[in-house]
Design goal:
175 residues; alpha/beta; Rossmann fold; 5-stranded parallel beta sheet; 7 helices; 14% strand
């Protein structure tokens, strides 16, 4: 079944959208939500492989972040180190049928404000603008390589109706 990846910086509305999608699409769905970054490269690779192996599952899968994207972005900007994943790795992993990335992206100031609702890892607030810029770069680069990206802005779609309809179309094979 299809894999939907929700990506974006802290405060961009990923978790809220995931909950709306679980309730609003009418499709059987499994939500995979990580509570923090994995401790080792082997764990990242295992998660990545497991997510992709679920393509045979009778459920639609929503991944609230995918390590191949989020770990690379956060490693580079917030942790100031190289990542086990690169943009070519993401392109290879996501250039498969049945995968769509929803990039949750609103106005930077509003996302920054929303990010303050929860505790964030060290470095997020200090590097927030760079984090958003890195995500923008990744999403634009992935899109240029033909990856199925849907840009979602919770400010212009507060009820998330447009996003729900796009995901329904994707899960029904119409996007």
């Amino acid at each position: 079944m299809p894999l939907l990846v929700l990506e974006g910086p802290d405060g961009s509305g990923k978790s809220t959208l995931a909950q709306k999608l679980l309730k609003g699409t009418g499709h059987p769905t499994l939500l995979i939500k990580r509570s923090g970054s994995p401790g080792a490269a082997e764990t990242l690779r295992f998660q990545n492989n497991w997510i992709h192996e679920q393509g045979q599952s009778p459920l639609n899968i929503i991944a609230d972040r995918h390590p191949i994207i989020s770990e690379a972005v956060y490693d580079r900007v917030v942790r100031d180190r190289g990542s086990v994943y690169t943009l070519p790795d993401a392109i290879e992993a996501l250039t498969k049928p049945g995968i769509m990335v929803v990039y949750c992206r609103a106005e930077t100031g509003k996302m920054f404000e929303n990010a303050h609702v929860e505790e964030q890892m060290d470095g997020v607030f200090q590097n927030y603008r760079n984090l958003v810029n890195e995500y923008d770069y990744w999403m634009q680069s992935l899109e240029e390589q033909g990856i199925n990206i849907y840009w979602h802005n919770y400010i212009s779609d507060p009820s998330m109706t447009d996003a729900i309809e796009e995901v329904k179309r994707f899960w029904e094979g119409k996007r």
